[in-house]
Design brief:
Number of helices: 23
Shape: globular
CATH topology of the largest domain: Serine Threonine Protein Phosphatase 5, Tetratricopeptide repeat
Number of domains: 2
Oligomer: single chain
Helix content: 40-55%
Length: 497
């Protein structure tokens, strides 16, 4: 609790919430520097995300577009129907007023205080994590000049090309991992590091695992570069077990510490599990389903009785399709995942194993045999639910039965691997959305709700905040001229046809 209170205090000190980059980066109180540990804790908390961005982007848009979740509503369900609501779609821009500027501030402070390089490496990894999520959703974004207005006097940052952002992020991860390879033991951040309590070996694995993720993003635009970065990541050392998972353990109080997904669920009673997701799990007798879902009407988690709600329906269309407009008989997220103190997963060992399986299949890397990695990924995805608590433990016998009934298919490897990736990233739909665009798997049937913004195709990006047209008009216009219209069907650089 004390540490959480320190976070709140740090937020109080650092936060200057207003509109526009100039206002966001002015220090009106000229306060002295907060301790670096307090700043790191605050950055980690806000990088995990709060209700504002997680509810709007991760749940309303990403999870519904990716058919993990659905809803009959019009408001609070825009992603379910491919409707553009720019204030929701642009919600990740809040990172510019929170972790982005705080990260830049902390890096300057660490330089000023002649801090060890390992501390700077940790912050640089966090910087990549935040920007990767943002650029994957919007494409070209303020990057090289972002968050540095108070430091450099640049109040209208340019938009960097995503191709340049990706190269820099990969190089930053490579450099950070190299620094961490020279050190061992515990960072000077110590317990202020909520993710790993300063464990440098885990931070190194996170850097390389992120390199693996970003390397695979290049598969369409530059296959040779993708293979090169994936190879570097594997050789550098990626996650080896569920003990290496990167997640933020939230708390129910105070308000600022709550799981952002869960607080979104708390204010939206009409969120249901998608028929696509429930059907996928039911047809495979997946033991995760009764952990992740319950029937809204009575809280039953009997897998056979769970029904997913089709995407793309409002109350009238639901009535026409089913003869009813009551959604209480459909499955909703369980109390386990709706807990305000639930963990928020950033990157998991399961994801890493599925990427290793793909690397083995495509290029003969990671031992050359994709099947052991695929099986390890499935097992890890099921076992990691234990992080939610004892009620989410899956018996080893059930996992083995699942693998026996759903064996690795060498004739359909890439699709099977990435469909399981989709299942494993449930509620981390920031990543689901990106990996789906990269691979095209699972094959999702689009909806065609009337007056949708994409002509019935699944969106390929989200849109910039409208405030940028007012506060940063020249750079905003240049970004649109370079990338294409600020609409949901414009593709980011790495998302080629």
């Amino acid at each position: 609790m004390k540490k959480l209170l320190y976070i709140v205090l740090a937020v109080f000190i650092l936060n200057a919430c207003d509109q526009g980059f100039e206002e966001l980066n002015v220090d009106p109180f000229n306060l002295s520097q907060a301790p670096v540990g307090n700043k790191l804790s605050t950055i980690e908390l806000f990088s995990s995300g709060g209700n504002f961005e997680n509810h709007r982007v991760n749940i309303i848009y990403d999870a519904m577009m990716m058919q993990h979740l659905s809803s009959p509503l019009l408001n609070f369900a825009e992603g379910d129907k491919y409707i553009l609501r720019k204030d929701y779609a642009s919600a990740l821009f809040i990172h510019y007023r929170q972790p982005v500027k705080w990260i830049e501030d902390l890096l300057v402070q660490l330089d000023d205080e002649d801090a060890p390089d390992e501390m700077k490496a940790i912050v640089r990894i966090l910087r990549v994590f935040v920007f990767q999520r943002m650029t994957d959703h919007y494409g070209d974004i303020p990057y090289s000049e972002a968050g540095r207005a108070f430091i450099d006097g640049v109040y209208t940052p340019k938009y960097d090309a995503q191709s340049h952002i990706y190269l820099d992020m990969l190089e930053e991860l490579e450099a950070a991992a190299a620094i961490l390879s020279l050190d061992s033991g515990t960072s000077a951040f110590g317990s202020a590091d909520f993710l790993f309590q300063g464990d440098l070996s885990k931070w190194k694995k996170f850097a390389n695992s992120m390199m693996l993720r970003l390397g695979f993003r290049l598969i369409k635009v530059d296959p040779a570069a993708a293979q090169n970065w994936v190879t570097k990541a594997i050789l550098g050392g990626v996650m080896e077990s569920n003990a290496d998972i990167v997640y933020f353990q939230h708390a129910a109080t105070p308000l600022s510490s709550q799981n952002g997904n869960a607080s979104g669920f708390a204010q939206d009673d009409q969120i249901r599990l998608s028929h696509t997701f429930v059907d996928f799990m039911q047809t495979r007798n997946d033991p995760r389903l009764p952990i992740l879902a319950v029937r809204k009407s009575d809280g039953s988690n009997d897998s056979g009785n769970l029904i997913g709600l089709p995407n793309g329906l409002d109350a009238n269309l639901l009535l026409q399709l089913t003869g009813e407009n009551d959604t209480n008989e459909y499955a909703e997220p369980s109390a386990i995942v709706k807990d305000l103190a639930a963990p928020m997963f950033w990157q998991t060992y399961a994801e890493v194993e599925f990427m290793l399986a793909e690397a083995a299949e495509r290029w003969g890397l990671a031992g050359g045999d994709p099947e052991p990695h695929y099986n390890a990924g499935v097992r890890a995805a099921m076992k990691m639910l234990e992080i939610y608590g004892s009620e989410a433990v899956i018996d080893e016998a059930d996992i083995e039965a699942y693998l026996l009934a759903n064996p690795f298919d060498v004739t359909n490897a890439i699709e099977q691997i990435n469909t399981q990736y989709w299942a494993a990233t449930f509620l981390n739909d920031y990543e689901t959305f990106s990996n789906w665009r990269r691979t095209g798997f699972p094959v999702l049937v689009p909806v065609n709700y009337p007056v949708n913004a994409t002509n019935g195709t699944i969106p390929r990006r989200l849109t910039y905040t409208e405030s940028e047209a007012v506060n940063n008009p020249d750079n905003y216009a240049a970004a649109i001229a370079a990338q294409g219209p600020d609409i949901m069907t414009t593709r980011v650089w790495w998302d080629l046809n």
